[in-house]
Every structure is written in C-alpha cells, then in structure tokens.
Specification:
Elements lengths: L2 H16 L1 E8 H8 L11 E9 L4 E6 L3 H7 L7 E5 L1 H6 L3 H9 L5 E4 L8 E2 L1 H4 L8 H24 L6 H13 L4 E9 L1 H5 L13 E10 L2 E10 L5 H20 L6 H14 L12 E4 L6 E2 L13 E4 L2 E2 L2 E2 L2 E4 L2 E2 L8 E6 L2 E6 L2 E2 L1
Parallel strand pairs: 1-5, 3-4, 5-6, 9-19
Antiparallel strand pairs: 1-2, 2-3, 7-8, 8-9, 10-11, 10-12, 12-15, 13-14, 15-16, 17-18
Helix pairs in contact: 7-8, 10-11
C-alpha cells in the first residue's frame, strides 16, 4: 500500500465512523500530509491555494482554479492520484461557497461535506478529527524526516561558520534563512538572541541588537510539509561557568523528557516528569517560564505538554522538546529515542538513564 493509500484509508475510516460524505483539505499542513506535496503560496495564512477532496468511498480529487492547476499537476500532484477539477478563478472569487458547492456535486455519498478549515459558514471544520490521523508517521515520512533533520542540523551548524561578532540579530537571521534555503528548507520560525536578550526573552525575535559573546539560534525548519525544530547556542571565548552549569542541568532535564516519551504516556505525565527533573537540578521555577515542547510533525507543535494534557504518545510519533533554564536551552526533534536534528561537529552532552545514553547540544566555543 502506498503512502497516499494508507492515509486515504485513515481518512475514509474517519468519514465512515462519523457518517460524513467527504472532506475538503485546504490547510497547508493537511495538504502536505496527504499528498506529500505543497499547496502553499501565501505563507502568512494557513489556507493553501488549492483543495484536496476525499469522498467516503476513497475517491480523491484536486480542486484548483486555472491559475494553479497546470503548475500543480506539473510540479506537485499526479492526476493518477487525484482527479483534477479545474475552474475559472473569477468563478471561485464570485462566491465564497463555490468550493463547497463543487464538492457537493462530486459526492456520491449521503452525509455531510466537511472541511479542515472554516472556508464558509455552510461547512463544518473538523481539524480536531483530522489531526489524530497525522500522528503515527509512515516509514516514507520517517525517512523524509530523517533527511530533513540531518540537513537542518547541518545547516545550522554551518551558520556558526558564517557569522561574526558585531553583526546584528537581524543580519544573523538572514544568514540562517539563506543557509537553510540552500537545503530547500524554509524557516517558519527564526529566533536569534544575543547576550542579555537570551536571559530576558524565551522567544527572542531578531532585532538590531549586536552580538558580542553568547548567541542563541532557534528554528522551525520546514520541507515537504514536515517541520524540524532545533536550537543551538555558541559563545565567543571562555564559556561562563554559570552557563556551563545551567546547560548541563538542561541536558539532564532533556534526557528525562526523552526517556519519559514512551507509547501510551500522556502529556501530563511527561510534564510531571519534567517538573521533577527541574526540581532535582535546583531550578524548580524554570518550568513556569516557558512551555517545554510537545508533539510535532506537520505543525510546529500539534500539542504541548502541560499539567492537564490528556494527549498521549503514539508509535512513530515525532516530538520536539525544548526545556529552558534562563540563559540556555536544549531543543531537538525526535522519533522514539532517535534524535533527527544533530549538527555534525557540534559539542554534545551525554546523560545516561537506565543504561541508555541521551545526547543534547552543548555550548559551542568559538
């Protein structure tokens, strides 16, 4: 069974269980999940430029206006997988209900036509029922994720070879994006914090602040819809002892989080383990200053661990944990205990738990 067939089977089971006639997929992350391709043009919105429509009987369609269809069929979607339904762009713009009405004409099933996004008041959005279908990655996705993680980790490692003290965070962010772009990767989140801003802000949006000694780079790197999340810190000259100690403590928290990420474990249970790890390291209050990460894949986070989180760990599910202690951080993307986003030649901290070694990035000395 192909990847698209496997995912279509998941969708049709959901449609059957819920007695829906069919589902429209327009969100960029869902389009990428089902097709392995992209409907993204405008990255400032969640909607993509065309739709996939899956009927309860498994019949699949690609709905696109005449501006997009030729390119989509040439560069993205195969007509053998999704039957093309083309229409004039003027017709689409003339009515907000056009896509919904078109899907209705394509459906030979009884039951409601639904969508992942709210595209018209006439259609119900069911993202909450689609999201669980994305959780367990198929082997082809895992291989693409490994490739993405390797390239993203390599790219961020290379950034530290291209930057110099005296540059602004904005200038460094541009080099981050350019370096990732050379690997055909988009940085959908780019954080750069220099010196005192690392301690002040957990999410340092790049500014004109000039880098002098310590630098944090954090990215959410997307290719083929999948997103790899990672953070790296470098220091010019001698690394302050307090930064070393905090980073070693973060590594221990990070290791405990990976160790706790076992099939069936809830986000609340992982959060509890994380809180205990912070306390054992003498940083009990740090967990209150930032979220600790959670499930990832086609969104930067599908859910975040918190004290009441009922979401659970599934087989072949990706996670991005990001424990922080003021001034430092560990963040990688993992599947099981496998870290996907390692950076070659970057120093690592090893922590052993019950005979298993867990590694997280150390501070790079420049």
């Amino acid at each position: 069974m192909t990847e698209i067939e496997t995912k279509t089977e998941r969708l049709t089971k959901m449609l059957t269980d819920e007695k829906f006639g069919g589902v429209l997929l327009n969100a960029q992350h869902n389009f990428a999940w089902l097709s392995g391709k992209s409907n993204a043009i405008n990255l400032s919105i969640e909607n993509g430029a065309c739709f996939l429509f899956v009927r309860r009987d498994g019949k699949k369609f690609i709905l696109a206006n005449n501006i997009e269809m030729t390119r989509v069929l040439t560069e993205e979607i195969s007509a053998a997988d999704f039957e093309p339904i083309e229409f004039a762009w003027q017709t689409e713009k003339a009515s907000g209900d056009f896509i919904f009405e078109t899907a209705k004409t394509l459906s030979n099933e009884t039951g409601e036509i639904v969508s992942d996004l709210s595209i018209t008041p006439k259609i119900r959005a069911i993202e909450g029922k689609i999201a669980p279908l994305r959780i367990s990655l198929v082997m082809a996705e895992i291989e693409r994720y490994r490739s993405l993680g390797k390239d993203a980790g390599t790219a961020i490692g290379k950034v530290f070879e291209r930057i110099e003290t005296g540059e602004t965070e904005i200038e460094i962010a541009r080099k981050v994006k350019d370096t990732l772009a050379a690997f055909d990767i988009q940085s959908v989140v780019t954080l750069v914090g220099a010196d005192e801003r690392i301690e002040k802000f957990r999410h340092p949006i790049p500014t004109v602040n000039v880098w002098k000694k310590v630098l944090l780079i954090a990215v959410c790197a997307r290719r083929g819809g999948l997103i790899a999340n990672l953070s790296r810190i470098a220091c010019v000259g001698e690394i302050p002892s307090s930064l070393k100690c905090k980073t070693e403590s973060v590594a221990k928290v990070f290791a405990r989080m990976i160790s706790a990420t076992t099939i069936g474990k809830s986000g609340a249970e992982i959060y509890k383990t994380t809180a205990e790890a912070y306390t054992e390291e003498g940083f009990e209050s740090e967990i209150d200053k930032h979220h600790q990460g959670g499930a990832t894949g086609y969104k930067t986070r599908d859910w975040v661990a918190h004290p009441a989180c009922a979401d659970t760990v599934f087989p072949n599910q990706a996670f991005a944990w990001n424990p922080t202690i003021t001034g430092t951080k560990a963040e990688e993307t993992i599947i099981g205990t496998e870290i996907l986003t390692t950076s070659p030649d970057f120093p690592m901290i090893s922590v052993e738990i019950e005979g298993i070694e867990y590694r997280s990035p150390d501070i790079l000395k420049l």
